[in-house]
Amino acid sequence: MKFWRQRETSEYSNVDRKKDDRAIGSLSIIAENHGINPEYLVNALLRALRNNESKCRKLCIECRQKTDDYAIFLITKKEDVISQFPVTRRMLQKPKKVLVDYVKYEGR
Length: 108
Fold this sequence. Notes:
Blueprint: H1 14-34, H2 38-51, E1 53-56, E2 59-66, E3 70-77, E4 80-88, H3 89-93, H4 95-106
Antiparallel strand pairs: 1-2, 2-3, 3-4
């Protein structure tokens, strides 16, 4: 299932890289604070992207907006907002690679 049109250039910009770093950092903190494997949380984002919402244990994930370059997700627990952030198209297309790259980079 394809949500975005292809960009004319395949460059991965520094802005996109920073967005991915922030998103993965946020996901890592959320996962740690709520005792969830980060990979499960990323999979829940993908389900929310397809179905507009999903659950990951007690967290609710809602895809609030989709554009050509990113999607914005809202993560809540009951009525409490945990976080809201954009996730780039690249991360959503290859989430495991981005997650592994981030963990390797942070573990240096």
